[in-house]
């Protein structure tokens, strides 16, 4: 299990606290320092069964500067979004847990973290 975090994020810290309390084995990826490639973002999107706009933090200053709220959300627009997430990793929603069963969850709640823990 791997968890993508921003250490400054309270949701990320809460997820780590819960994982530790449950004795889960996991690897931390500080994705602002160890920026995911476009391929890794595509793979996580596949595991999440989501589109890039579904995991984009559109309220961030960088998102506003890029104007992402105005971008299309079709298959033709997908690569533009993925490239924006790669170039501006702060826009990636967090935390993301990649579960041992090959799936992934955006773990912003205790329930989502527990869901990831239950996936074998």
Automatic annotation (TrEMBL):
<comment type="similarity">
    <text>Belongs to the ArsC family.</text>
</comment>
<dbReference type="InterPro" id="IPR036249">
    <property type="entry name" value="Thioredoxin-like_sf"/>
</dbReference>
<protein>
    <submittedName>
        <fullName>ArsC/Spx/MgsR family protein</fullName>
    </submittedName>
</protein>
<dbReference type="Pfam" id="PF03960">
    <property type="entry name" value="ArsC"/>
</dbReference>
<dbReference type="InterPro" id="IPR006660">
    <property type="entry name" value="Arsenate_reductase-like"/>
</dbReference>
